[in-house]
């Protein structure tokens, strides 16, 4: 906001962007004959979402996309990451994405769509969802529909969003849709999403996609102490939540024999699957929010409430609160160095790591509505973003190739099981009137982009 602000600086050509996902912003739940997704089913269940909220209207982006894009473009971003609603596409409503893409291009913003951001069609879930191998082929068909329709204008594609969080929260636990609670029995759902990724990369490339990547949630995992039991527990947790999802893509195999066996695919088939899954990528998307600390479970100790979701007591690892002077209003620890850390770790683990784009990073604060002067003073969000951009810059200095950074999120939206209290947007949404207001962080981000060496 002030002329004296010193902004972190990035190499020429570095891409700044903002991210959203379809289910969290679009609303228009049954427009054009759109069928329900697993999230429509989940949100209808009493007690599933805070305050019983649902996303039937959400931020009403489906009807307000044109003015939303105006606000996004006015910040000077290069890229806008959004996702497609699979059920909307199945209903034949591709016109919406056509208009969205054209509006972005006219505004000078590059569309970077994600095929799948957790809103599986309920009809596919009824046939087993991601535990059914056929779902991967259905995803590939859907990718083909989209690239056929939009491939003349969309160059950059992201296959899947956070397969690890979707598997863990939705299939292993019950905190997200489809709330299956399978524990380690969720590993086949992980494999089928990875297979979907591999199949989608092939379909996208066949149709001439210019640049293909994936968006993965990564968190540095540290052990609570040097005790070998804690170190082993942390390594096992990280293998299951980080490396199970990235090793197949970047190394062509699972991190551990036990995990390889638990995905439940016969050996010969598994080798063919992994061959597809390790397809070369043009960029690797990293979503980062906070680190995790793990110890070996101590008898009689209560671990509930340490993380946003509880790890079952019979698992061989337990979470310990991460030390931090600062937390977001969601309760997440603010640890910018964790972002540098995970980027350097990825670079060291993967000799062929493609250029990285930070596809999500941001913070939830319970912002107050605009005051009489129309401003929303979200300085804690500004300092979160500033510190994390500096952490990205530190990783670049350490030799990691990072080509871009997207803020989560462009606008306030439906934060899954947490409903509407958790606001991640640079743009405020009044969820009764649906009116938009730029937060101070929007102006800060605009000025930061304008202050870069060359845009
Ligand atoms: C992403 O999920 C999603 O892609 C996006 O849709 C969502 O709105 C956004 O981030 C904000 O949540 O304490 O065990 O939960 C990120 C979900 C957040 C899950 C950080 C892991 C840390 C460990 N992740 N969380 S835990």
Topology diagram in text:
Blueprint: E1 15-19, H1 22-25, H2 38-43, H3 61-74, E2 79-83, H4 86-90, H5 95-106, E3 110-116, H6 122-126, H7 134-150, E4 156-161, H8 163-172, H9 187-206, E5 211-217, E6 221-223, H10 228-250, H11 257-262, H12 267-277, E7 283-287, E8 292-295, E9 318-320, H13 337-349, E10 356-360, H14 379-397, E11 402-408, E12 427-429, E13 436-438, H15 440-450
Parallel strand pairs: 1-2, 1-11, 2-3, 3-4, 4-5, 5-7, 6-8, 7-10, 10-11
Antiparallel strand pairs: 8-9, 12-13
Helix pairs in contact: 3-5, 7-9, 8-9, 8-10, 9-10, 9-12, 13-14
Ligand GBH binds at residues 21, 24, 161-162, 165, 217, 219, 287, 289-290, 292, 307-309, 360, 408, 415, 424.
Q: What share of the residues does DSSP label as strand, in percent?
A: 5-15%
Q: pLDDT average, as an integer?
A: 97
Biggest sheet, open or closed, and with what strands and sense?
A: 8 strands, parallel, barrel
- Tally of separate helices: 15
- The SSE string, one letter per element, is EHHHEHHEHHEHHEEHHHEEEHEHEEEH
Give the % helix. 25-40%
Distance between the termini: 19 Å
Q: List low-pLDDT spans.
A: none
Task: Work out the number of β strands.
Answer: 13
Please give the oligomerization state of what you see: single chain
Ions and ligands = ligand GBH
Shape: globular
Please give the order of strands in the largest beta sheet.
1-2-3-4-5-7-10-11
What is the rounded Rg?
21 Å
């Amino acid at each position: 906001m002030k002329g004296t602000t010193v902004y972190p600086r990035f190499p020429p050509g570095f891409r700044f962007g903002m991210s959203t996902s379809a289910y969290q912003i679009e609303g228009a739940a049954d427009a054009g004959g759109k069928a329900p997704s697993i999230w429509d089913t989940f949100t209808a269940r009493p007690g599933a979402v805070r305050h019983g909220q649902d996303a039937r209207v959400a931020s009403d982006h489906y009807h307000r996309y044109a003015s939303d894009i105006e606000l996004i473009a006015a910040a000077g971003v290069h890229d806008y990451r959004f996702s497609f609603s699979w059920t909307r596409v199945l209903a034949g409503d591709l016109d919406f994405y056509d208009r969205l893409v054209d509006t972005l291009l006219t505004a000078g913003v590059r569309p970077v769509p994600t095929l799948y951001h957790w809103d599986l069609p309920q009809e596919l879930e009824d046939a087993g969802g991601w535990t059914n191998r056929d779902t991967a082929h259905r995803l590939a068909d859907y990718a083909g529909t989209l690239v056929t329709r939009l491939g003349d204008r969309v160059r950059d594609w992201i296959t899947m969003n956070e397969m690890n969080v979707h598997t863990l929260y939705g299939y292993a636990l019950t905190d997200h849709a489809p709330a299956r609670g399978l524990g380690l029995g969720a590993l086949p759902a992980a494999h089928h999403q990875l297979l979907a990724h591999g199949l989608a990369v092939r379909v996208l490339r066949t149709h001439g996609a210019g640049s293909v990547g994936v968006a993965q949630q990564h968190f540095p995992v540290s052990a609570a102490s040097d005790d070998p039991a804690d170190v082993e527990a942390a390594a096992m947790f990280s293998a299951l939540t980080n490396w199970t999802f990235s090793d197949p893509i970047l190394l062509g195999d699972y991190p551990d024999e036990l995990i390889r066996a638990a995905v439940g695919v016969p050996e010969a088939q598994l080798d063919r699957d992994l061959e597809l899954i390790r397809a070369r990528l043009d960029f690797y998307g990293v979503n980062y929010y906070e680190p995790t600390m793990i110890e070996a479970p101590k008898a009689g100790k209560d671990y509930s409430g340490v993380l946003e979701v509880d790890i079952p007591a019979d698992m061989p690892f337990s979470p310990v609160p991460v030390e931090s002077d600062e937390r977001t209003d969601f309760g997440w620890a603010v640890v910018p160095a964790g972002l540098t850390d995970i980027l350097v770790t990825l670079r060291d683990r993967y000799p062929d790591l493609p250029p990285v784009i930070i596809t999500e990073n941001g913070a939830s604060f319970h912002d107050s509505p605009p005051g009489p002067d129309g401003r929303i003073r979200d300085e804690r969000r500004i300092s979160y973003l500033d510190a994390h951009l500096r952490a990205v810059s530190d990783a670049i200095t350490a030799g990691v190739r990072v080509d871009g950074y997207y803020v989560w999120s462009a606008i306030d939206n439906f934060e899954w099981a947490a409903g509407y209290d958790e606001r991640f947007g640079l743009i405020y949404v009044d969820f009764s009137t649906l009116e938009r207001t730029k937060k101070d962080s929007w102006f800060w981000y605009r000025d930061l982009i304008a202050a870069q060496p060359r845009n």
